[in-house]
């Protein structure tokens, strides 16, 4: 066989960018992914303090967390569908401008609860695109057999929120938002000048790029042929994906798990205050669940790629382990905190709950990028929607439930939600391949 006939059968590389360029892209989208979660977590440790600053009740100040999470859940559905259709880079640059302006205003307007609600909504709207669009960028440049490891690194951004957010909350709360404005501007410049467009429908496998710097542009024209055209964003497209059982079940699975973990997170500061922790000690204590998220993501991502074996559902077998770890952590936290056992035990169980949760999330997010290949950002956005909506609902209702059922039983109920998630995992392992083969 001639060399020319051999070359005709050689498959092009999945992504032509050199390894160092891929690493740079992952670093940039990871930094961008940090913005939304740190905006939420910079806020949670000082909720008791903000109650006094704004002269409102616990339920009212918790409501500012809920509206942030609701918007953070819904807005990516809009951003991600257009990122899958018209390009990734545009859907970084436009929302981040909104985020930067919101933080400038949060750092400067008078302390008014109505203004706080409005600006937290716009802040969430601006920061919300990155998680789903970032996952789409990863799917563009990293082939499936290595994708979970890359996504586990990308998730360091969201997971560093619980680590650095509480530390940043030690400075005056207005300066916290000023920091977010400055950091958002820095990330914006990185995206503008160093992040290439990666949507495969527009640029293929990126073989047309040379060098590290890119010419700033808001929209990318199509420069390749032969890649399937993604469907134009519409309610019909979303409804089709939401009805697609692999996307629906894996998204609900993540939502239930995140609701249980977020119930722990919004009570953590109050629990530590009962142990007579100072505000500084409370803020620093959030490093514990933050580190658990990073470790769980990293280990879970590495093992998930080991399990993939050409069939995406193979990733789910590891999720049962993570769900059991998280459930044990939440239930252990519930009763050690309620019985006022030594605070070290509270930290141990908090660590376990975060480790198990993010162990599950990395394989879940990777699976969403694989189960319908031309809409990875949209699939992840649906997963984020379920997850953040569940967190918002949990934040809104947990205080009344705590008063009615007591701390121990309330958190135990949240922990047992993981049993439902285990059921979803079993169903997906059994029927997921069949459902994906039938999807058109």
UniProtKB/TrEMBL annotation:
Pfam families: MFS_1. Its main location: membrane. It is found in: Cell membrane. The keyword Secreted does not apply. It is a multi-pass membrane protein. Belongs to the major facilitator superfamily. CAR1 family. MFS antiporter that does not display functional linkage as drug transporter and performs functions that significantly affect biofilm development and virulence. No substrate for transport has been identified yet, but plays an important role in the growth in the host. This is Major facilitator superfamily (MFS) profile domain-containing protein.
